[in-house]
Input
Amino acid sequence: TFEGTEGTIRVGRGKLKCDQKDLLTKPLGENDRRVPPSKNHVRNWLDCIRSRKQPICTVETGHRSASVCHLANIGYKLRRKLTWDPAKEQFVNDAGANALTSRKARKGWEYS
Output
C-alpha cells in the first residue's frame, strides 16, 4: 500500500486498487520513479546471479521491506507508540523496543 498526498494505491498479486481512479491513468512525470515490471521475482534473482546485474528488488529494498514487517511486529507486541529513525535503524529513546530488533546469536554464529 502506498499512501500519498493525492490518494492511496494498493498493489498485490498483479492487481492495483486505488481510491482515486484517475491516479492509475495519470501519466508519470519525467522525474517520477519507475519500477521495471517483473512477473517472476525468483527468475529475475537467478538471472541476476548469473549476469551480475542488479535485480529489480535490490538488497536495500529487500532489507527495508522486511524491516517494516519486523517493526510492525515489535509495535504489536509492545502496544505503544514508537518512533523509528531509519538513518540510525533504531527506535528513538526506547531501549526496550531497540532490544527487540535483534537477538543474541547462537554459539558459532556470532559476528562482529
In short: Residues 60-103 form one domain. DSSP finds three helices and five strands in the chain. The two ends are 36 Å apart (CA to CA).
